[in-house]
Amino acid sequence: MTAGRLLFRGALFMVAALALSACSMFRGDDSGGSRADDNAGRGGGVTLGGGGSSSSGGGGGGDAGIGVNSFLWRASLDTLNFMPLASADPFGGVIITDWYSDPTTPSERFKATVYILDTRLRADALNVSIFRQQQANGAWVDATVDPDTEVQIENAILTRARQLRLSTVGN
């Protein structure tokens, strides 16, 4: 390959790289203020605090700044408040409790995980898993949980969520 041809290919490569990098170079006004105004006008983002504004329809509470229905979130925390929390993620909609042992039955303990799957207040937007262990020979052993227990806790959460929603609609 001749030096002229090699120089031509190198120059062609440089021009292509320069043209490609210039594609995003001129986007108009790129000040931080205009981007912030655009984002604020679009909505979304994170709002801290607040119980949840009700949107039209049956959902309600979806615009509270968290990724899930705020009424279901609050109702889940209220319903499981007797159990110590291990983890609570309002953006992912997951509440995990630590093991809880009732003082009347110290050889048995429970753990709960609540998944809030939607921004609307609906029964299918909630999934509760209960885990149970019994103490045998000094070690904790997994035990079966009555499936009705999970349904009862889901119903208690849904009932509390409806109460919370009705209390905000009335105001």
TrEMBL record:
Q: What keywords are assigned to this protein?
A: Signal
Q: Where is the composition biased (Gly residues)?
A: 41-60
Q: Which InterPro entries match?
A: DUF3576 (IPR021959)
The keyword Signal is assigned to this record: yes
Which residue intervals make up region (Disordered)?
33-60
Q: Which residues cross the membrane?
A: none
UniProt entry tagged with the keyword Signal: yes
Q: Where is the signal peptide?
A: 1-21
The protein's name: DUF3576 domain-containing protein
